[in-house]
Each structure stands twice: as structure tokens, then as C-alpha cells.
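WARN retry 2 of 3 for item q-0093 after timeout on previous attempt; input resubmitted unchanged.
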Amino acid sequence: MAKEIERKFLVRDDSFKIGAISEKHIIQGYLSTEVRATIRVRIVDDSAVLTVKGKNDGVVRDEWEYPIPVDDAREMLQRLSTGTLIDKVRYIVEYEGKRWEVDSFRSPLPGLVVAEIELSSPEEEFAIPPFIGEEVTGDPAYYNSTIARMGMNG
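OK item q-0093 returned
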């Protein structure tokens, strides 16, 4: 079992695009959005994964991820997903030796841009890039599973 240790921030401007080393198109949906176990299907360009995440304990949570056939992922998303599918572009930005993932949402919340950084421990220190705004780690409003549910309501 892997542990995910990440922090999440709002993005204040699009200057991150200048430093982006890659970008990927992501479509994802949820088979379960229970707090105890979130189950996600994600298609990234031409590959797909099934991810199971446990409940957050601060910035740490259990995570299991498995590659699956893209056709299976599409079928699961079409037939089993709860809520609205998320459509976003993920930019990978290197900043002072750390990798940031910046997600620019196309739907269901166009204009929302958040950045995440994965850490090796909750206490790990890192430099904050200039495009980073308010920290929203642990705020359920910014969980992708919540965003998918919100899309159903507006």
C-alpha cells in the first residue's frame, strides 16, 4: 500500500504555463465518493487508471492505483460514475527541485486552477512558486470528488 502525502493550493495567475514541462488532458469520474474510500477512474491522454483512496489523515492518506484498459475506463465512466465527469488539463511544473501538478479545469468548474505538490513526509519543506495562492489542503470543497458532485448541481 502506498501513502499519498500532498498539499494543495489555489493558483493566482497563469504564469505557471511558462515553466510547464508537459501537459496532459484528463477525464475522470468517481465510482464512489464515500469519505472512507474514494474510487476514481481516470483517463490521461491514451492510458487509464483505477485509483482507490482512503480517508485523509491530515495531508496523508492510503492510495492504490492500477492501470486498466482505456475502453474499460470509458465504459465504467459512462455506466457507473456518480456525479459529473471532470475534464481538466494538467500542467507539470518543476520549481526549485520539486514537481508541481497544476490542474486547469474545463468542467464542471471552468476557470478553477489548483496546484498540488506530493511530498515524502508531512514535514518536508519546499519553496513556493510565485503563481501559488492560498493553501486549500484538507478543504473538502477542493477535493476532485466534491467538484464532481458539485457539477451535478450547477
